[in-house]
Design goal:
The protein has about 80 residues and is mainly β. The protein has 1 helix and 4 strands; from the N terminus they run ββββα. Strands 1-2-3-4 form a 4-stranded antiparallel β-sheet.
Length: about 80
């Protein structure tokens, strides 16, 4: 996954808005971890967050946690009729 700072965004001192990395969702603990490598950096940095409705991890959890068999998650895919 990659995130690029938008033209109207301003970078804060401790928050970098451009990075490349991966996102891992923990369906059991309802948390997600971003492991990112910043441009020009030699090492990656990981940060873990609680999943909320407005977080990046929410859409991933909502669509994929049922695949893990974690309790409380189910497929939201609706079946459609094809043809007659």
């Amino acid at each position: 996954m990659a995130r690029t700072q938008g033209p109207n965004e301003v970078t804060a001192k401790m928050y970098v808005k451009t990075w490349n990395g991966k996102v891992k969702v923990d369906c059991e603990k309802f948390k997600y971890t971003i492991t990112a490598k910043l441009p020009g950096a030699l090492l990656s940095k990981s940060s873990t967050y609680k999943i909320t409705k407005t977080s990046l991890g929410y859409n991933l959890a909502d669509n994929f946690c049922y695949l893990t068999g974690a309790e409380g998650f189910y497929s939201k895919r609706e079946s459609t009729r094809m043809g007659k």
